[in-house]
Amino acid sequence: MNDSNNTNSKKCDDTKSIRIKLDTKEKVDKKLSMINKSEEFGKVNYDKLIQFLIDSMTNEDVELLQNTTITWKIEEPRLMKLWSKKNGKVTSEKWKEMLYMGQLQTFIMEHTRISI
């Protein structure tokens, strides 16, 4: 029996690739190049940089990051629910009417998480 063809070669690789935009990769490369200029220290790689950033994130950083993902599709139902809580239940139709008529402009500017 030829055992050499049946060998299981398990590669011990604890790395994975992640997909990022080209612009992001260029920014990280530029930052790493700046970090690694000095020969007095070891080289910082992608993994060390990401681990450092994750470990040093505060709750405020997480909130700031989450706020960058908010869209009007996400924000509108939250604002409608908040309006209903403060001013009484409102239907979707009435909400749209008030929105189109500009009656919600002040409320939205006071309560939205999106920069206007």
Describe this structure in words.
The chain is built from 6 helices and no strands. The longest helix has 16 residues, at 72-87. The protein is elongated, with a radius of gyration of 25 Å. The chain is 56% helix and 0% strand. It has 116 residues and is an all-alpha fold. The mean pLDDT is 90. The termini are far apart. Among the domains are: 22-56, no CATH class; 72-111, no CATH class.
Name the features.
6 helices; mainly alpha; 56% helix; 116 residues; elongated
Q: Any low-confidence stretches, pLDDT <50, length ≥5?
A: none
Oligomeric category: single chain
Number of helices: 6
**Largest sheet report:** none
- The end-to-end span amounts to 74 Å
Helix content: 55-70%
Q: From the helix content, strand content and strand pairing, which structural class follows? A: mainly alpha
Q: How much beta, percentage-wise?
A: under 5%
Please tell me what the overall shape is.
elongated
Radius of gyration: 25 Å
